[in-house]
């Protein structure tokens, strides 16, 4: 099953560079309607993304994304498998799709920024691949939110995201790339002043800048009692930053990048960290080990976000 192609206007340094046609793919493996799903995108004719089949999760990524395999020819891909029991919200979303889509919930608009370090280091300056990568990550995280039952009434509440604008190399307000690790708050604070953020609920900056203290994502929390709080749909500080670099190494596993994005969006919606619960989206630290709950919000997080 393939979705209709999505045509997206891309802005490079604030100037429109035309429309890109992105080919997203969503569906299931033939003859495995109830035990599989496929989610990703086509770049030229190659599929990148995830295939979930019979309790196993397969990732298909660009081979030359892996440092040890840099010499691979462009277009060669690598498939790897991880044993995995259940898949939390991703899977629920597919099952609940009809119900989810028939509800009218809150859809928040996003502006996606990819800074120069991201387009260069992560995508080898291939903007189309970069856009497909970030948009498909937002799509997966959107599935998590859309399928989450925030108010515990037994039904998902259709809270989700819509991408309003995508910009690459829009360097206004973004700190210059630094070979050394920098303070993530400093990056976030300057990005949050970007003038274009007033047109959307939330701006997300994707970067390859590495941050101190192993930070891979940083955001403003939407806290009712915090005068300086920001977060989703806030007039100020409606910004978050995701880095695809951890220390000096690129994070090659897309599922960990997706979790970082979902985690920071959780803060933007008003959730705190889980205490003594390691394998939910709002755990303070990600060990890289995944459990069936890793893509879901704990009851406590859902309560935090709902009371907002
Ligand atoms: Zn956090």
Would you kindly provide a written description of the structure presented here, covering whatever features stand out?
With 308 residues, the protein is an alpha/beta fold. The protein is 23% helix and 28% strand. It contains seven helices and 13 strands. It has helices at 88-95, 97-102, 116-121, 127-146, 184-191, 254-268, 299-307, and strands at 6-12, 15-27, 36-43, 46-53, 56-62, 77-83, 107-114, 160-168, 202-207, 217-219, 239-243, 245-246, 249-250. An eleven-stranded mixed sheet has the order 6-5-4-3-2-1-8-7-9-11-10, with helices on both faces. A two-stranded antiparallel sheet has the order 12-13. α1 (88-95) packs across α4 (127-146) and α4 (127-146) crosses α6 (254-268). The longest helix is centred in the middle third of the chain and has 20 residues, at 127-146. Mean pLDDT is 78; it is low at 84-104. The structure holds zinc ion. Zinc ion (ZN) is lined by residues 263, 267, 273.
